[in-house]
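#help-structures
NK: newbie question, is this the right format to request a structure? protein is Extracellular serine protease
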Amino acid sequence: MGSRHSSTILKTVLKSAFLLTLTGTAVLGSQNADVKVNAKSDSSLSSELNPVPASYGYFVDHYQENVKTNSTPDTNPAIALFNNTFLTYWNPTTSTKTNASLLQENLDKSIQISNGASQAEIDRSYLTDRRDLRYNLISGFGQYAPAFIKDTNAQTDFNAVPNAPLPAGSPYSSMKWADENATLGSAVKLVDIAEDSTWSGTGTPKAYIKFTRPYRQSDQVKVNPYLKNVMASAAANDYDFPSGHTTAAFETGETLAYLFPERYQQLITRSSEVGCDRVLAGRHSPLAVMGGRVIGTAMTAATLNDPDNKQLMSEAYQDTQKDLSKAQDKSAKDSFSDYQTNLKNYTYRLTYGFSPIGDTTKPMVVPKGAEVLLATRLPYLNATQRREVLYTTGLPSGYPMTDDTEGWGRLNLFKAANGFGEFLSDTTVNMDAKKGGFNAADTWKNNISGKGGLIKEGTGSLSLLGDNSFKGGTTIKAGTLVAENAHALGNGSLNLAGGQLTLSNKSVVVKGSYTQGSQATLKLNANSKLSVSGHAKLGGKVVVKNAKGLKSGVVILKSSKLSGKFAHHSLPKGWHLTYTKHNVKLVK
């Protein structure tokens, strides 16, 4: 970067000092402000989790340098962010396509997607285009949207499609999207800072990159019929990359997901849908909306790491939780109610079907400060563990628009919201049910691999839904661990030292030994079975539910060798247990 004003340097120094602290302290307000990474954890931070600086340093430290007076990659991190990606495909200085085949594929995808738009997508992309960029994300709240609209005084003057194409020069929404003095005014303020601050825009990067919009590159791109006059009359310097709507969508959606993580994946799926709407309308190319995700995510993390916003973040989080947690309107429409559809759409929009164009074997890089994006979604993890989640759920390298130096392009927040993708080492999870929310109960849906194991502590309940293969074994010291998949417990032994193991799958496998302590409980349905490949040493308590319709002699625990017995049991009336050399049976 070139020379900077002394005030900017001072701010950078102060922010750097704060971020070093933030690496160990989650900015959550009262929910878990006491969760810290101890000094030992910080000093032993594995090298693979360390951030990698770009030409500008770290985006979270320098994001406020995205202003008009900083108009080159040497002075503006919002431009330099794309040095290793889009600026290797396109040279704005000479207006030269330096990767012509990729840019042609980008245009071809624009043609294909825009021509394939359904009427519902045409209508939706029109409303996305016209409405305030922040109002666009409210639909991600689903059945909580009516309460959010009411308590933020949210409004728009675009509620339906027009009867005819808009005339040239028609304005966007003229209404203020929400009221900072409303009941949820703190949430509105934080979103306004994230999306509408001086340095959050894409105008300066667009002005430098100067990449033509797809509908002006080819008349085969089908523009939204309601917008054809507006788009035809747009200024010549109305450029494609990066998409401003998409940037704003991720700034808004990820900020709202921070405030209301109960709708985390739904809100960021809506963020990605806004980007898709821009391609459907012919406004932007896939690479432009992929770029919008990258810079929007970096900007959001920068806002949430900024010490100037810490108090507001705490207030907004607490206000939103208090206001929305019990405000579900089950009669309201929810366009994001289907998890598998959300997963499919979000995952596709990370790459838009592009094949890798670079090295696919590079290790994942986690940007400095990115862990804050999971602070409320995984509040029981410390900052280092959240970085590990991002590291183990990131995209493979090599795809277009993903390999920026810091790693913003490879973050997969949808997958990260499902917990670890891999245990790099033994991982302790300590959940405090008294804090409520995800501290009390959570579900990890990823297929977890790795050499490490899981150690469950605290009073909360953690469910494992993935087909797991981690090798380090499972230890339950307190609280509840729920096995919802046959291989939820991975490929190691299980030590039920305390707390409770609940089997929610008909068959659950322990690929090793099973040891149950005197204070521990095994809970299962009578038609469920724990299969232990090694030695099973029993103790503690077993709880068996729902034996209706079952024949006497059903096996509830099978092992290669069995020793000990359950000291206590709670069984269906009229049933008892029998023990053999290998099995525990439920007998009537």
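mod (FA): yep, format's fine, and the tokens are attached above. The domain at 6-416 is CATH 1.20.144.10 (Vanadium-containing Chloroperoxidase; domain 1).
NK: thank you!
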